Amino acid sequence: MRLLFVTPFVPGRQAQHGGGAYVGQVLAGLAPLAEVGLVALQQPDDPGAPHGTPMAWLGLAARRRRRGGLGGALDSAAMAWRWRHTPLVAAKHWEPRLLAVLARALTEFRPDVAFVEMAQMAQYLPALAGVPTVLTDHEAGCPANTRTGLGQFGDARDRRLWRQHVLLHYPRADAVQAVTAEDATTLSALLLRAVRVRPVACDAPATPADVAKAPPRALFLGDYRHQPNPEAAARLARAVLPRIRAVLPMAELWLAGAHSERVADLGMLPGVRVVGYVADLAHLFAQVRMALVPVWSGGGFRMKALTALAHGTPLVTNELGGRGVAAPAAAVARSETDEGLATAAIRWLGDAAAAGAAGRAAHAYAQATLSPRAIAVDQLALARELVAARSRVTT
Predict the structure, then answer these.
(1) Mean pLDDT across the chain, nearest whole number?
(2) Which of the ends of the chain has fewer CB neighbours closer than 10 A, N or C?
């Protein structure tokens, strides 16, 4: 079976952001079971192809860079014109050259089913007419990084446009799926149709990090272009870490991830270190005793939480940060308050042996339940159902 994925970035298991890493896990799981093609809108810092996953067909369209001078003014005018009826993030992801790449994919690759990833890419569904399509929503119909820079009025207007965007484009897909049960319920109520849940996936290394050997150090991991991440990092550094250090004065908070210049000022706070993007995650997790990854905005699930568990690192988070995570209480602690998060973190930061036991429980959970192959089998079964349904309609 030939499966075409349409994404707003070049995915990969080592991608700098959670969405890219998650889709990379999906592709890696599917590659041994089906012919996988990819049409991607290439961002300025994306690689030229997915790392470690051979594609049966690959087509990229580079997202236009913002120009200066008169060209920049024309670009801004075109964006403003499109923003009249399209949410800003979706407008930024509209690239006419991608339509030509999609047309080539349909002609040359001839997919049996197309999987369209993320809300902003739903606008390309009309270009896939004639092929069964699956739209996978990652954040309940409205990406978290949707601030317009135009204040509350502009942001409220943009949220209304996202609702219109969902109602206009999502019904064009043969199947809609979300990445958490909560998001599926929200979308189902809006669309008045069934929305399935695609399982989460994160490949676990064979050997977990030995967190018991690490100093009392907590890790927050994320791409800081994504608005929930700098918000969470600031709250952890300013409100949670001081409570931890009142009990454990040597405790540290490491802020890792791409585009860390957006949180560079937090590195001036006592106990906070901004380490930036680290490609070798095994090396990174070997240097920390636990992951402290709550978030207070956004939808979907948090790849950072699964990544920590997969590397054998105990996790402290809140309800939103732990969505999609069904790990046992031995590996995960949750709280909604700064005081509660600090107390839970102190439990493992102050007891290396307890952190080691929690890390082993985390790794066992990841190995048992987060295999990319399981998600691949699920998606392949869905694709076969859609092909069979289309065949019944046309015969």
Answers:
(1) 90
(2) C
pTM for the model: 0.83
Kindly tell me if the per-residue pLDDT of 278 is higher than 90: yes
Max mean pLDDT among 76-90, 273-287, 296-310 falls in 273-287
Please tell me the distance from the alpha carbon of residue 387 to that of residue 375, in angstroms, as a whole number: 19
Confidence label for 78 from pLDDT (cuts 50, 70 and 90)? low
**Which domains are seen in the chain, by residue range?**
2-201+371-394 (3.40.50.2000), 211-369 (3.40.50.2000)
The size of the chain, in residues, is 395
- Quote the CA–CA distance of 317 and 247 in Å, as a whole number: 19
Cα separations (Å) of 242 from 115, 142, 256, 269, 289? 45, 33, 19, 10, 18
